[in-house]
């Protein structure tokens, strides 16, 4: 696994203080910039999330894949993340409510996965396009009528000033260069276009209490950890103005909540067993612990 040292992605300083050594919170060492307070992994690796590992293989590269069978088995019952997209559709529909207008244009979601959210925007009259490099979710999106660019946003060709809305939920914390990501979003949007980002926040009471045991900081795929201040600094760096900044809740199953308890306590097997015995996947709840932030930005 390749490892590289980086400077602060917002202010380019190499003056940082270690918060957690490698192996304490997650696989990466986590530091905080002494100038702007951005938290980030340093050094960084190309660590992939479980979702990416499950669906990264291209059917063009692996002739042994039975695409029809993969798509047949790609259901909410078989794939927790797909079920999550359907469960949280009402949570994210509020984004469409916020950006909706009479003369609709092109609406892009980065990390669109199976296209469930974009399908809802499409129903409301938007011309939608997803960015999704994972093969099976991209095929599923196309199957339900959602256009997909099968590349990472950083690598995809997006004509300048061609988009009206860009949404990226729980993406920015994974990318290797958030500044380049936001800059590309800015140039891709039309004047007046909107960028909506959602990501964990690390000025929350949960993080202050749990520190290295906090659920989101323990995710090995996360390499940037934003507070309201540092996320605001990032988007302002490229000329965005902030229209709204809020802490948001989410809908999830009780078994997923127990999974999170397992992550926090380090007792995944115990909570997994309890969840299975109690059949907690049947129960759905909505919670807001103020550990997730959503920022609505506009290009002027």
In words, what does this structure look like?
With 300 residues, this protein is of the alpha/beta class. Helices cover 33% and strands 24% of the residues. The strands form 4 sheets. A 7-stranded mixed beta sheet has the order 8-7-6-9-10-15-12, sandwiched between helices. The protein has a 4-stranded antiparallel beta sheet with strand order 2-3-4-11, with no helix packed on it. A two-stranded antiparallel ribbon has the order 1-5. α10 runs antiparallel to α11. The longest helix is centred in the C-terminal third of the chain and has 12 residues, at 254-265.
Keywords, separated by commas or semicolons:
alpha/beta; four-stranded antiparallel β-sheet; 300 residues; seven-stranded mixed β-sheet
Strand runs, count: 15
Order of helices and strands: EEEEEHHHHEHEHEEHEHEHEEHHEE
- Give the helix proportion (percent range): 25-40%
Overall structural class, as computed from helix and strand content, comes to: alpha/beta
Largest sheet: 7 strands, mixed
The largest sheet has its strands arranged as 8-7-6-9-10-15-12
Task: Give the overall pLDDT as a whole number.
Answer: 93
- Assembly status: single chain
The geometry reads as: globular
Q: State the separation between the terminal residues, measured CA to CA.
A: 41 Å
Q: How much is the radius of gyration in Å? A: 19 Å
Contiguous uncertain segments of 5+ residues: 53-62
């Amino acid at each position: 696994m390749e490892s590289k040292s980086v400077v602060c992605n917002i202010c380019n300083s190499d003056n940082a203080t270690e918060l957690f050594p490698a192996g304490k919170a997650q696989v990466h060492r986590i530091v905080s910039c002494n100038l702007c307070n951005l938290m980030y992994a340093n050094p960084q690796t190309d660590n992939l999330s479980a979702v990416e590992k499950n669906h990264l293989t291209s059917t063009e590269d692996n002739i042994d894949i039975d695409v029809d069978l993969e798509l047949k088995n790609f259901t909410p019952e078989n794939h927790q993340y797909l079920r999550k997209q359907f469960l949280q559709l009402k949570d994210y529909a509020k984004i469409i409510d916020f950006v909706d207008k009479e003369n609709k244009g092109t609406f892009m979601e980065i990390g669109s996965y199976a296209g469930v959210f974009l399908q809802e925007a499409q129903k409301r009259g938007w011309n939608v396009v997803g960015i999704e490099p994972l093969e099976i979710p991209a095929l599923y999106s196309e199957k339900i009528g959602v256009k997909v660019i099968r590349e990472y946003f950083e690598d995809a060709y997006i004509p300048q000033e061609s988009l009206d809305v860009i949404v990226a939920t729980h993406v920015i914390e994974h990318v290797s260069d958030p500044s380049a990501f936001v800059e590309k979003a800015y140039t891709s949007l039309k004047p007046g276009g909107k960028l909506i980002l959602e990501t964990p926040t690390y000025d929350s009471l949960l993080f202050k209490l749990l520190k290295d045991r906090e659920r989101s900081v323990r995710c090995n795929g996360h390499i940037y950890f934003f507070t309201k201040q540092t996320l605001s600094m990032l988007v302002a760096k490229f000329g965005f103005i902030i229209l709204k900044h809020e802490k948001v809740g989410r809908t999830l199953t009780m078994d997923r909540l127990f999974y999170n308890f397992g992550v926090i306590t380090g007792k995944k097997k115990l909570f997994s067993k309890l969840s299975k015995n109690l059949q907690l996947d049947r129960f759905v709840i909505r919670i807001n612990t103020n550990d997730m932030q959503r920022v609505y930005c506009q290009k002027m």
